[in-house]
From TrEMBL:
Boundaries of every GST N-terminal domain copy: 1-82
Keyword Transferase: yes
Top-level division of the source organism's lineage: Bacteria
Family matches, as Gene3D superfamilies: 1.20.1050.10, Glutaredoxin
Protein name (database record): Glutathione S-transferase
Record-level Gene Ontology MF annotations: transferase activity
Keywords: Transferase
Species of provenance: Bradyrhizobium macuxiense
């Protein structure tokens, strides 16, 4: 399968999931500015007209978009990895967390803070309206190791999103000690440590390229 990604973007969650499953994939890096696939110079917009990562092309040639859908697909494809769920009730809980992370944290809180073009008022509004979602996660993680009763693709997504706090100074993780401990613990997990290290190097190379071209 082919995973179209950009370094340290939300697509990193799928890389983590694939590493957890021990499954090979073709990782195709998309330049977030030009939408060019760095591996072969092709136009990513021809794969996904929205130009958004992650995008996954399955071994059957089916193109999937949207992080939650892709993560669930990977979990379902490799059940022995244990990163999905078995029962219907737990599956709904997994969906709940994937949707929450995608809407309340990723899009609601972090996207305005990371958007260099967003006006200060938008960033202030995002903090005022959505920072309480971190309180919700904090309360849930007290006394828990993972979002569910085991590591799942929801954890891969949450760690990916919380990783962005290194670029969002208004959010200081020390205010949420259970979340901070969870993040630090999972950053040391082999699949996550490998994904972060690899994508951080790619991110630095990407920044250097754009500086050189400016």
């Amino acid at each position: 399968m082919d995973l179209y990604f950009s370094p340290l973007a939300c697509s990193m969650a799928t890389r983590v999931a694939l590493y957890e499953a021990g499954q090979p994939a073709n990782f195709l890096e998309v330049d977030p500015k030009t939408k060019q696939v760095r591996n072969d110079g092709t136009d990513f917009n021809k794969v996904n007209p929205l130009g958004l990562v992650p995008t996954l092309r399955t071994d059957d040639g089916v193109v999937l978009t949207e992080n939650a859908a892709i993560l669930q697909y990977v979990a379902d494809q490799f059940p022995r990895a244990g990163i999905g769920t078995a029962s219907n009730a737990e599956r709904s809980k997994l969906h709940q967390w994937l949707c929450f992370i995608g809407t309340e944290l990723h899009k609601g809180l972090f996207l305005p803070l990371l958007d260099k073009k967003a006006p200060p008022e938008a960033k202030t509004y995002a903090l005022e309206k959505y920072v309480s979602r971190l309180d919700y996660v904090e309360d849930h993680l007290k006394g828990r190791e993972y979002l569910l009763d085991h590591f799942s693709v929801a954890d891969a997504y949450l760690v990916t999103v919380i990783n962005w706090t290194m670029a969002t100074p208004p959010i200081e993780l020390s205010k949420w000690p259970a979340l901070k401990a969870y993040y630090e613990r999972l950053r040391a997990r082999p699949s996550i440590a490998k994904a972060v290290a690899e994508e951080f190097e790619l991110y630095k190379a990407e920044i250097a390229r754009h500086k050189a071209a400016a």
